[in-house]
Amino acid sequence: MAQVTSQTALHINQIHNTLLGGAEEWSKAYGISATVPASGIYRCIGCGDEITSNKGDKFPPQNRHQHADQKAEVLWQLIVKTQTKG
Ligand SMILES: [Zn+2]
Fold first, then answer.
1. Could you name the domain of life of the organism this protein comes from (predicted)?
2. Separation of 68 CA from ligand 1 center, angstroms?
3. What is the domain count for the chain?
4. How confident is the model at residue 86 (pLDDT cuts 50, 70, 90)?
5. What is the CA(86)–ligand 1 centre distance, in A?
């Protein structure tokens, strides 16, 4: 689980995302080699592992993130979105 301290938590802003008008990247999960929709921290639904990814890059290919349990699907879910300028 992503961690913050009481000091760094001051820089985390909890937003209220709505289904209508909310940013799509919060409600979708992304598979192997999909294009990263927004820069931030992503959590694998299948195993709980976390990665940081930059917008426009690709999520890890199949040979870079594997599960011992083949039935556990690799799906990346955005958990912290970074706010970058430009
Ligand atoms: Zn995983």
1. Bacteria
2. 9
3. 1
4. low
5. 30
